[in-house]
Amino acid sequence: MKWNQLTTQDIQILYFLNQARYATTSQLARLFYSDSDKPETAIRRANFTTQRLLKAGLVSHLKRRIGGVRKGSASYVWQITFQGLKLLKSQDETIVLRYKNHYEPSQHHVEHALAVTEIFIETMETVRNSKKLSLEAFSFEPNSWRSYQKLSGVGMTLKPDAYLELVSQEYEDHYFIELDRSTESLTRIVNTCKKYIEYYRSGVEQRQHGVFPFVLWIVPDDKRKLAISKAIQAELYNFWELFTVITLDDYQNHIKGGIDELEKSR
Question: Which InterPro entries match (predicted)?
Answer without folding.
Answer: Replic_Relax (IPR025855)
